[in-house]
Fold this sequence. Notes:
Elements: H1 2-20, H2 22-31, E1 34-38, E2 44-46, E3 51-55, H3 56-61, H4 64-82, H5 89-109, H6 118-131, H7 135-153
Parallel strand pairs: 1-3
Antiparallel strand pairs: 2-3
Helix pairs in contact: 1-2, 1-4, 2-4, 4-5, 5-6
Amino acid sequence: xxxxxxxxxVRAALYAWRDLDPDGFVRGRRVMRRILIKSTxxxxxxxxxxxxxxDLATAMSGTAWQTAAVLIHEATHAYINRRWIPYTPALKDRxxxxxxxxxxxxxxxxxxxxxxSKHDWIESLRAYVRNGPPADLIDRQKRHEEQRPMLExxx
Length: 155
């Protein structure tokens, strides 16, 4: 039952992405071949596997819209990586803002009557694009970066 719920949510997220941004969906499918769902501090794109590692907590408890936004964020990483732009400390902030801007473009397309928290969500994404990540996300990113080499070996 849990697995079916997770897969159903990811499937709904993919349909939502396809329906609201067909061109972006096709582009995302081209650069991100697979989705692996596992327990990690954050979702991330694995260039080695050309896949999104989707955090289990997001897949379980997020709405289809939230999960789609994460997939779009990671597909943007894939697209940037495919253009041979390295994810270096010097470029990290700029790349993350680009990825969040793509999330924002998707969230703005969600019909208001389908997502009650849309306004607050848009404001938080705009704040990220303007000011960078909030402190709690910075902490989660640091933990993720510390664990990532080990996680990559487990794939």
